[in-house]
């Protein structure tokens, strides 16, 4: 298959449908096509952690990261999300792009179900909830579970303000952590409580691997 260029990937991801009525408590904001394409392209070209790999996408939502990974020739990408509505949109997206290397599971990532998937995936990719909506600490729970599920590496987005805390945890868990990029994440106007039309927050794109 012809290898996709970064611009081509970004423009394909612009056609991925996103949350129709985002649920605030589940922190349902999609990764923008621009950020998703850059993340996935880096994971692919710099680290070779996508092509032919078994990939998990935790808190996959409508699936932009899984779909992009599938387009970059993942062996199989499995998305996990608690929300049936999001997975319905994800499923429609997969059908629209006629992708055969994507699957999805409805579950609470923080439940015991994921214990059975220890070291079941080569790579975990995720844009987890940040833990700012009555769910404090959920970002670190996602990270701990992702590290348990991955054999090679975890790629994740975290608020830059939590970097020191994550660094301490990574040391405690004997995990190597590399901030690959500092991003500006546009929390779009989908949430009514935001007074401004759009709010940029600083986010780290981080690669975690095993020492
Ligand atoms: C920030 S959104 C990211 C969505 C998608 N990965 C993307 O990049 O566009 C976080 C996602 O995590 C899901 N989520 C929140 N809590 C969850 C949980 N406990 N278990 C599984 N999914 C959860 C939400 O439904 C939402 O789809």
Characterize the structure shown.
GO terms for molecular function: nucleic acid binding; rRNA (adenine-N6-)-methyltransferase activity. Residues 46-145 form the Methyltransferase small domain. The chain is an alpha/beta fold and 211 residues long. The protein contains six helices and seven strands, in the order ααβαβαββαβαββ. It has a seven-stranded mixed beta sheet, with helices on both faces. α1 packs antiparallel against α2 (33-45) and α2 crosses α3. 31% of the residues lie in helices and 27% in strands. The protein is globular and about 45 Å long. The relative contact order is 0.15. The chain has a single domain (6-16, 30-210), classed as 3-Layer(aba) Sandwich (Rossmann fold), CATH 3.40.50.
Secondary-structure blueprint:
Layout: H1 6-13, H2 33-45, E1 54-58, H3 64-71, E2 76-81, H4 84-97, E3 102-106, E4 121-126, H5 138-149, E5 150-159, H6 163-172, E6 175-187, E7 199-210
Bound molecules: S-adenosylmethionine.
The site of S-adenosylmethionine has 21 residues, from helix 3 and strand 2.
CATH class: Alpha Beta
Low-confidence segments: 189-194
Strand order of the largest sheet: 3-2-1-4-5-7-6
The CATH architecture name reads 3-Layer(aba) Sandwich
Evaluate the radius of gyration. Answer: 16 Å
**Element string (H = helix, E = strand):** HHEHEHEEHEHEE
**Average of per-residue pLDDT values:** 92
Tally of individual helices: 6
Share of helical residues = 25-40%
Examine the coordinates and then state which fold CATH places here, giving the name of the CATH topology. Rossmann fold
CATH homologous superfamily grouping = Vaccinia Virus protein VP39
List bound small molecules: S-adenosylmethionine
Describe the global form: globular
């Amino acid at each position: 298959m012809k290898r996709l260029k970064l611009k081509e990937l970004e423009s394909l991801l612009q056609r991925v449908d996103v949350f129709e009525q985002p649920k605030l408590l589940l922190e349902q904001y999609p990764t923008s096509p621009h950020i998703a394409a850059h993340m996935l392209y880096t994971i692919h070209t710099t680290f070779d952690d996508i092509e032919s790999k078994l990939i998990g996408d935790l808190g996959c939502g409508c699936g932009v990261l899984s779909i992009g990974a599938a387009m970059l020739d993942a062996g199989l990408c499995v998305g996990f999300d608690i929300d049936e509505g999001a997975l319905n949109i994800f499923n429609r997206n997969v059908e629209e792009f006629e992708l055969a290397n994507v699957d999805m599971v409805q579950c609470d990532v923080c439940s015991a179900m994921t214990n059975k998937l220890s070291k079941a995936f080569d790579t975990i990719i995720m844009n987890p909830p940040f833990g700012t909506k009555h769910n404090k600490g959920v970002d670190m729970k996602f990270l701990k579970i992702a590290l348990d599920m991955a054999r090679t590496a975890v790629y994740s987005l975290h608020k830059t303000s939590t970097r020191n805390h994550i660094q301490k945890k990574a040391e405690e868990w004997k995990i190597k952590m590399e901030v690959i990029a500092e991003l500006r994440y546009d929390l779009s106007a989908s949430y009514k409580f935001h007074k401004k039309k759009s709010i940029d927050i600083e986010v780290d794109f981080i690669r975690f691997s095993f020492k």
